[in-house]
């Protein structure tokens, strides 16, 4: 290309910054010790084998816990959560109406998904810094292979697309297990378990 054309091309690629004060940016910082956490963010956590803690970092994401608010409320078309789970535990088969990306931060994690065309369940194992992007409407599940051991660790980052993600849809097998322990949804669609007694 002509040198002058390359120099002139910068006219289309230089722009000023939008306003963002230190107070504005402070509302967009999530410090690990202050990130809200919930061991009951989803209805499947009432079912043995699906115990985990969800840390709500950015955006409302999806949750069945009405009191669970993110550390950073502002989210432009994405939501970020951290997930920590005991060894062998994680989310039951479910789908979202938007893409979900998982990035393994520590430990090894297994991911299952159902191929709706064949009905087959497939599994892949991921390690630190591996990433998987699950399409909308595809049932997925995941579990920690290493647990919360500080030496090996086990943390997963979930990035969910969409300005306002829709409700989680669960696999029928989870529904039956949840019913057996008296777990379901209240009138507002939030997870609840019948009191024993």
From TrEMBL:
It comes from the Bacteria. Gene3D superfamilies: Jelly Rolls. Residues 83-151 form the Cupin type-2 domain. This is Cupin domain-containing protein.
